[in-house]
Amino acid sequence: MKVSFGTDGIRGPVDSIITPDLCLRIGQAAGQVLKAEGWDTVLIGKDTRVSGYMLESALEAGFIAAGVNVRLLGPLPTPGVAYLTKSSRGQFGLVISASHNTYLDNGIKIFDANGVKISKELQHKIEKVINTNSLQIVSADKLGKARRFDESGDRYVEFCKSTVPQNISFKGLRIVLDCANGAAYKVSPAIFEELGAEVITLGTSPNGYNINEGCGSTNPESARKAVLEHRADFGVTLDGDADRVKLIDASGNILDGDDILYILASGNTNRIGPWSGIVGTVLSNLGLELGIKDLGYEFERSDVGDTFVNEILTKKGWYLGGEPSGHIICRDLVSTGDGTVAALKTISTLLLLEKDAKEALKGYNKVPQVELSIEVANKDVLNEASIQTRIQEIRSDLTIGRILVRPSGTEQKIRIMVEAESESTAKKCAQDLASLF
Q1: Distance (Å, rounded) from C-alpha 225 to C-alpha 401?
Q2: Fewer CB within 10 A of the end CB, N or C, for the chain?
């Protein structure tokens, strides 16, 4: 099987794609390529999937065989691995996670020494080594060494706390925190508690199989109910590796990544230099674009994926960007999407503004939007001429709105997004598109 990186690393079912054999080869190949870049140590973190221990061992063996030293971080959010990688200097990082997917899947994400996902060029070099079987084992005297990095969680907790301004206190706040039975189950409750909040936790009892199951940012309904039941001030819902977040206000309204971006933008007082523009994606609601521009910012759209958001932020020299799914990148603080940091910054912004979320979002009106995911046997069906012709016909029927039909970068699905002047029109258009598959 040919190995290739997708929009968020290498990901797939554990029993057929992300196997110990593949991870051994990834460890050796990534070790060879990245050691040649001058990085001789890898930090390995993971989420709570039962397969994580198996895959961690295989990756560890592969890196050691390539002469790379290994530091095992244990369960830690993806952005925590990125932070430690950057702060450790001269090293690279790897996360074993399939993000918001079920425990049946797993995946590999690799960060460079700056704490951002490795470049396409490095990905292609690693793919070439794996796919041509040009794997090498160093001599016994040059093998890498492994050890545990037990203070990784504490280091990340302290960093996240440091992102909250000194004049902001969380004392008196009641927060429902759903960690999706994932990588943040220990560190994120500690962060909010140490900042003074009363924390009601959900999704903090991982058993290896329940990650993202009916909980977290992809399933925020239980957290919404808990916010209303406990009369909480906020709900914070993370996904399995805690690089995504959705918030819930005191009235039970769920705030997605677009809402969070608007709140963060409205709370910023200057519009120059790195704060002069904001990056969304092709999935960002048209209402966000219009609202951001009304606030005095420039607005750019990237392809779907936090890697592409980060690329435009870097190119433009801007600090803030994200996706509706809840990947929020605050580059003044972190190098990648960080659900916990984004939640801390959003809550801090509302406290500074002395506004609730509803009031902060007054200047922003979403256009009706419908999203569907269709499972397919082969995503290449989207390239068929008859399908493309029909998509164009449906698009031409819209007087106001946008259509996006794309293959998923992480799953065997076709993603459909429709924006229209009314919800009924958007739903009909989306169903017409779904019927093509």
Answers
A1: 33
A2: N
Distance CA 250, CA 272 (A): 33
- 155 — pLDDT class (breaks 50, 70, 90): very high
pLDDT digits (tens, 9 = 90+) for 278-333: 999 999 999 999 999 999 999 999 999 899 999 999 999 999 999 999 999 999 99
Distance, in Å, from the CA atom of 179 to the CA atom of 237, rounded to the nearest integer, reads 6
Cα separation of 241 and 224, whole Å? 20
The tokens of 130 are what?
């794996």
Domains of the chain: 10-150 (3.40.120.10), 155-360 (3.40.120.10), 369-434 (3.30.310.50)
Strands 234-238 and 174-178: parallel
- Dist CA 305 CA 324 (whole Å): 10
- Which of 251, 256, 236, 249 lies closest to 180 in space, CA to CA? 236
Whole-angstrom distance, CA of residue 71 vs CA of residue 357: 41
Which helix (H) or strand (E) is 94 found in, with range? strand 92-96
CA pair distance 10, 110, nearest whole angstrom:
9
User: Which pLDDT tens digit goes with each residue over 233-248?
Assistant: 999 999 999 999 999 9
Burial 168-191 (b: 16+ CB within 10 A, else e): eebeebbbbbbbbbbbbbebbbbb
For tokens 């993000």, what's the residue?
A: 99
CB atoms within 10 A of CB 124: 13
Average pLDDT over residues 101-125: 95
Q: In what order do the strands lie in the sheet with 413-420?
A: 369-375, 413-420, 401-407
How far apart (Å, rounded) are the C-alpha atoms in residues 245 and 389? 37
In angstroms, the CA 320 to CA 277 distance is: 8
Enumerate residues 6+ apart whose C-beta is below 8 A from 301. Answer: 279, 280, 281, 282, 284, 289
Is residue 347 within 8 Å of 328, Cβ to Cβ? Answer: no
Residues annotated catalytic, as ranges: 99
Percent of the chain with pLDDT over 70: 100
| Under 8 Å between Cβ of 42 and 64 | no
In the 8-state DSSP scheme, what is residue 151? T
